[in-house]
Amino acid sequence: MGGAEPGPADPAALDTDPELLLRVLCHEFRTPVSALTSLTRALADERLPLTGDDRRAITGLAHEQAVHLQGLLRDAAAGTGALAPAADPAAPLAQVLRGAAALVPPHRRLTGVTRRAGGCPVPRRRTRQVVTNLVENALRHRPAEGRVGIHAAFARRLQEVLGGKWGEMTVANQYLYQGWNCRLPGKYKDLFLDVGTEEMGHVEMIATMITRLLENAPLSLQEAAADNPMVGAIYGGSNPAHFIHGGGGALPVDSAGVPWNGNFITASGNLMADFQLNVTAEAQGRLQVARLFNMTDDPGVKNMLRFLLARDTMHQNMWMAAIEQLKEDGLEEMPVPDAFPDSKEFTEQFSYTYLDFSPGTDASEGRWASGPAPDGKGEFRYDHSPRAHAPEPVLPPGDPRLYGTNPGLAKGAANKVKSKLT
Ligand SMILES: [Fe+2]
Questions:
Q1: Tell me, what's the pLDDT at 326?
Q2: What is the pLDDT of residue 174?
Q3: Dist CA 408 CA 216 (whole Å)
Q4: Would the pLDDT of 354 be above 80?
Q5: Is the pLDDT of residue 255 over 80?
Q6: How far is the CA of 141 from the centre of ligand 1 (A)?
Q7: 292 CA from centroid of ligand 1 (Å)
């Protein structure tokens, strides 16, 4: 059934040109025959962990394909109308997708159908054919493991590393505020301002990528489902604010649509505290980008993520080097704040004592339970049975004007208080 794709056929020519009729039939038969083959193969494959419902759904789908083929044959035999579309009753999208989803092994199955999308009526037979073809292609051409991603949904996921708590907007603003507030001229201030400015560049890169991913996205569920029911299903997972508010562009929000917040950043004024937080920010940032890397097959997006991963590697190392430099320069030490006098805290009893509050003593094997502490000023101790250092607190009755439930306050007394207050 190979050869050139047949163009739009003139129905009159089909009657007189058997070769053209044969080519049109081959073209029409290719999809249902291929679907029927994969469906029956799936039913026969004992390695697929199919449930009874899965088998019924696949059988139903195969029946649909067989009926479709029968119709094509009947039309061809009649000699006319081979290309005329048969009546195709509508069915809810969720019902149509269920059968196609059963083709995918459960551990690779990723369905994202919202209630609204699932209830959307679509031409049953045509949609089933398209979805089955998509699933079949995905299974045939994708790697042996992994799931299928859709761009519009990924644009929403990328928002996490743009406007989420640990996204680029946070690190850019955090480093810039740390730099603007830095009272130490020279290399430390320069470091903050350099990296903060670079992170602003990352904000621009990700915002631009999100905007590119939203290009040509369907604006309505009907529009999405008409061309591609699978996109239509996933479309329910896209962020409507990207289109209604942002006009198809990125927003300063996270992947759940929660706005970026200035409270996400900390510029403490103490460089040791800031540098340690910055190591954590780069670690969480790299973690999130690494997770996103596994959620997309788009080579352009993957390339951008490769760059960001590399910069996060540099920045984790850089902030750790800055901690060491701060110590070498004699400016700060552990614990923060170094300038607070140890003599004012209960050093002897509590500063280096590990308190065991759980059954078992597994934690006593850790580096934190014995030996020298990292600040070089004490030795860790392990307390197996911490005791109370003060009697159990008993709170006095509260202010009656606040109407808390006070202990020992009988109803009569409460009424007296009430009459005094009124
Ligand atoms: Fe960054």
A1: 97
A2: 98
A3: 70
A4: yes
A5: yes
A6: 34
A7: 14
Residue-wise pLDDT for 294-338, tens only, equals 988 888 899 999 999 999 999 999 999 999 999 999 999 999 999
The CATH superfamily assigned to 151-214+249-328 is Ferritin, core subunit, four-helix bundle (1.20.1260.10)
Report CA(224)–ligand 1 centroid distance (Å): 34
87 Cβ contact partners less than 8 Å away, ≥ 6 residues apart? none
How far away, in angstroms, is 313 Cα from ligand 1 center? Answer: 10
Ligand 1 centre distance from Cα of residue 150 (Å): 24
Q: Give residue for tokens 């934190």.
A: 368
- As a whole-number percent, the residues of the chain with pLDDT over 90 amount to 46
**Dihedral sign, CA of 179, 180, 185, 186?**
positive
Distance (Å) from CA 118 to ligand 1 centroid: 38
Neighbours of ion ligand 1 (CB under 5 A): 168, 199, 202
CA of 197 to the centre of ligand 1 (A): 10
Residue 236 CA to ligand 1 center (angstroms) comes to 30
Beta carbons of 291 and 353 less than 8 angstroms apart: no
Cα 334 from chain centre? 36
Query: Across all residues in the chain, what is the average pLDDT?
Result: 82
Q: Report domain extents, the chain.
A: 11-141, 151-214+249-328, 342-383
CB-based contacts of 383: which residues, under 8 Å, 6+ apart?
A: 353, 354, 355, 356
